[in-house]
Structures are given as structure tokens and as C-alpha cells.
Specification:
single chain, 3-stranded antiparallel sheet, 9 strands, Nucleoside Triphosphate Pyrophosphohydrolase, 6-stranded mixed sheet
Length: 164
């Protein structure tokens, strides 16, 4: 039996990407979505983005939303964690979605990253987001509406009996 060092062992483990985003709602309950300027398909997205090296999900959420919207972000609580299976060339991912308040809706979007923002009624999320992101955001809306959570998802689906 060959003994490996801690460094070799940890280097051999699978890589998992991480992202963090925010469920931001209007006073009427609509959900804030953003249009990614670099997406050729015109799909909308959840405010947030990829976690940087050694950055926590909570820190990434606040940083990404402040960078994207140009206003301070105030994460209030975790709504959902969603594990996404690998889909080569993409590795598996954990998406953290927090309930977030912003201090203003006087947004300043970085034009190289975002081209628009819109308040979307929860029942219209599937028309704007990819299937997985729409399921994730709908689950976060349910958590927010019920005052419950957080909820664990796999590919946007609740998998624990008490969360279905």
C-alpha cells in the first residue's frame, strides 16, 4: 500500500465550483433578475456569481451583488443550497442562494457584464431563467414566502422528505 501525503490526497479529490446569489424582492413580491451582457442566448440570471478563491458563499453573495448592481447588499439569511451534477466540461457545483435586501433600486450596472434588470413575478421565472435556475429561484421564493428554510436541493429539486 502506497502512502500519500495530505497534499496529494486533497489534490486527488474532485473539484466543485461554487456560486452565490441573491433573492431580492420588490415590495409587491416580484423577483429581481439581471440580463447577462455576455450571454448570446439572451437568458436572464440571478444576481450573484462565482465564488473567488478562499471566499465564503456569504462574502461572495455580498460582493457580487454590490459589483453587479452598484448598491450595498445585505444578505439576511440562507434560502437554498443547490447541488448541480457535473455536465462536462463543467464540474459539479454548489449554488448558495441568500435572501438579500438592497439599500436602493438606483442600480448602476457594469455594461460589460449586465445589460438590464427587471422585476419578475415569481410565476414567470421559468420564462426568464434556465430550467435549473428557475427551479432554484422558485424554491427560494417558497422559503421566503413561508418564512422557513433553508432548503437543500439537487439540480433544483428538493430531495429531503420534509422539504418536498
Amino acid at each position: 500500500m502506497t502512502e500519500t501525503s495530505d497534499a496529494e490526497f486533497f489534490a486527488s479529490l474532485p473539484a466543485t465550483r461554487g456560486s452565490a446569489g441573491g433573492l431580492i424582492r420588490s415590495t409587491t413580491g416580484a423577483v429581481l433578475l439581471v440580463r447577462r451582457a455576455y450571454r448570446a442566448d439572451g437568458r436572464w440570471g440571478i444576481p450573484g456569481g462565482i465564488m473567488e478563491h478562499a471566499e465564503s458563499p456569504l462574502a461572495a453573495c455580498g460582493r457580487e451583488i454590490a459589483e453587479e448592481l452598484g448598491v450595498p447588499a445585505h444578505p439576511l439569511r440562507l434560502a437554498v443550497v443547490d447541488w448541480m451534477p457535473p455536465a462536462p466540461p463543467r464540474t459539479a457545483a454548489l449554488h448558495w442562494l441568500f435572501r438579500v435586501e438592497v439599500s436602493s433600486t438606483d442600480f448602476t450596472l457594469p455594461p460589460e457584464e449586465l445589460s438590464a434588470w427587471e422585476w419578475v413575478p415569481p410565476e414567470r421565472l421559468a420564462a426568464y431563467l434556465s430550467t435549473g435556475a428557475a427551479r432554484r429561484m422558485a424554491a427560494a421564493v417558497r422559503v421566503d414566502d413561508r418564512g422557513s428554510g433553508p432548503v437543500y436541493l439537487e439540480n433544483g429539486h428538493p430531495v429531503l422528505a420534509q422539504e418536498r
